[in-house]
Amino acid sequence: MLGIDTSAQSGAVGMIDGEQVVFSEQMKIRPGGSEQIPALIAETLDRTGRDVKELELITVGIGPGSYTGVRVGLAIAKGLAYGLGVPLVGVPTFNALALNGPADAKLICTLARSRKGEVYAALYRPDGGGMAEVIPPTIWTVPELATALKEKGQPVLILGEVLPEVQAELAMVLKEQAAFGRGAENVVDGVHVARLGLSYWMATRENQLDTVLPLYLRRTEAEVRWEERGCRADVPG
Amino acid sequence: MLCLGVETSCDETAIALVEDGRKIRSNLILSQIDKHQKFGGVVPELAARCHLEVISRLTAEALQEAEVAPEAIDLVAATYGPGLIGGLLVGLSLAKALSLAWKVPFVGVNHVEGHIYANFLAHRDLEPPLICLTVSGGHTQLVLMPEHGRYELLGQTRDDAAGEAFDKVARVLGLGYPGGPRVDRLAKTGQPTLTLVQHDALAGTYDFSFSGLKTAVVNLVHNLEQKGEPIPVADVAASFQRQVVTILMDRTFRALEENNVKTLALSGGVAANSELRARFAAEAEARGVKLYYPPLALCTDNAAMIAACGYFQWLREGASPLALAANPRLRFEPPLVGADKNSL
Ligand SMILES: [Zn+2]
Question: How many other β-carbons are positioned within 10 Å of the β-carbon of residue B179?
Fold first, then answer.
């Protein structure tokens, strides 16, 4: 099983063989360069003495995150899955990221960069080795997110590659209620993507090769503007 | 040698299978034009989204249509520039992953060079040395191709591309978009009797200029409008087109003669213009030059030309690195030869 995620500043690939971790690699892909992930996969397979033809399932993070980054991940996953004739499963990136947190955490909030002043965030509760979704991936302003987390009244571990000023703002509101992930904890692990994808596949047997879509959370600006114009035209008078 | 081509640089998702760089086994193009029309132009983010949604299905269909099993494919080629970055990345990433899965070489292709190779698909007897005139909405270039993969720039436009000038003139005449085919159609009903520009400022060089001609049309139309006189749109279209083709012919046939080349290939969307084709054909016949141009379907963006170009590139240079980066501003700039000829 191969897991890929290219939604954030670091790209991740991981391979599992049953319970065994074959490899877990991460590389800086921002700004630009996510199209270099196939070279990383090729080198890593070589180094670990594995053959691409051994792969039986391709799994990929669908975001939220950088639109372009997520699309590159999906295009790579589609090429591999179609090329190898194996199924493809899309995995919510935040669910995989939350698995970086300890099983005894009360709440885990996953974050990713969005436009200026906004973040993507979701909230999870560790649950029997997995993650139960408390709040699905949503776009937030930082003050809104801080308020929502404060209202939960429980310690929350915050994971994800976010800007220092976002972290500072959350820390200011949440004080000792919040803890922040360190280093690699903030980067998706390709192995978690592969494990999640495998359990989805076992449960559904649904090959998403032609149907998997990025979790955009937002339409294109051109579409939004066009619809706003359309609405105004509908107003009588 | 079977090559899969992938093209996603603008608003067309295209996949093709080409044998030995010459024979099209399948050539599928999914245009997104209806998705962008209401916005009055291509929306890059929307284009990238559309490419990703259809690309795996289109790849499967291209193999089915060619009746080819994945194991039969020897090479994967994809456009890596120039174009819209979001779309380029989708096609390039898919192509790299396919090459990894199939364990076949990957080749990154320059889209502009790809257009030249449309001719090698349409004409299996075509071989360099040749001179290629590329005329499209983005390019007007006269290139000497002594052998595959070697190019020498003879001349190019100093302002507008020919296709750009056609579009602007069509707009001024109220013909709408796309301008080229509409000017072409209207010109058939008019007389090319109007002198729009007195003299050709770049005569004697291999370079082109179309902005003076375009401005002359704009001024003529405005003057008539101000005087309240009717605009002879068909005559204007015919006169404009006549002069554009005359300039293109002058440079091209002089280049053929001065470089002692007997083969001429046309590429790009404007190569579909009916007056251009007819007059180039007559002149080529008179001078003993062999003239080639691609059918209309291969003049516009497609993946077969990328596969063909990729195949010949692989023969010469081998595979591209798997880490090749997409380059939205990639240039096609062969070295300029005989620069003295163009310094006026
Ligand atoms: Zn093109």
Answer: 21
**Ligand 1 centre distance from Cα of residue A186 (Å):** 42
Contacts of B140 (CB under 8 A, 6+ apart): B134, B156, B157, B161, B162, B163, B208, B210, B248
Hey, is B262 helix, strand or coil?
coil
Whether the pLDDT of residue B270 is over 80: the answer is: yes
Q: Are B26 and B66 in contact (CB under 8 A)?
A: yes
Q: Are B52 and A6 in contact (CB under 8 A)?
A: no
Question: Under CATH, to which class is A2-93+187-220 assigned?
Answer: alpha beta
Closest CA–CA distance from residue B304 to any residue of chain A (Å): 19
Residue (of A161, A159, A100) closest to A126 by Cα position:
A100
Positive or negative torsion for Cα B53, B55, B60, B65: positive
**Which helix (H) or strand (E) covers residue A125, if one does?**
strand A118-127
Q: Please, is B57 exposed, middle or buried when counting C-beta atoms within 10 Å of its C-beta (0-12, 13-18, 19+)?
A: middle
Distance from C-alpha of B15 to C-alpha of B57, rounded to nearest angstrom: 10
Among 3.40.50.300, 3.30.420.40, 3.40.1110.10, 1.20.1250.20, name the CATH number for the domain at A101-186: 3.30.420.40
B:35-94 residues touching chain A, CB 8 A cutoff: 38-39, 43, 45-46, 48-49, 52-53, 55-57, 59-60, 70, 85-86, 89-94
Tell me the domains of chain B and their CATH numbers. Answer: 2-118+298-336 (3.30.420.40), 127-294 (3.30.420.40)
- State the sign of the Cα–Cα–Cα–Cα dihedral A68, A86, B72, B100: positive
Tokens at B339, concatenated: 């620069």
ipTM value for the complex: 0.93
Model-level pTM?
0.89
Cross-sheet strand order for the sheet of A58-61:
A20-28, A10-17, A2-5, A58-61, A88-91
pLDDT digits (tens, 9 = 90+) for B34-48: 888 777 778 889 999
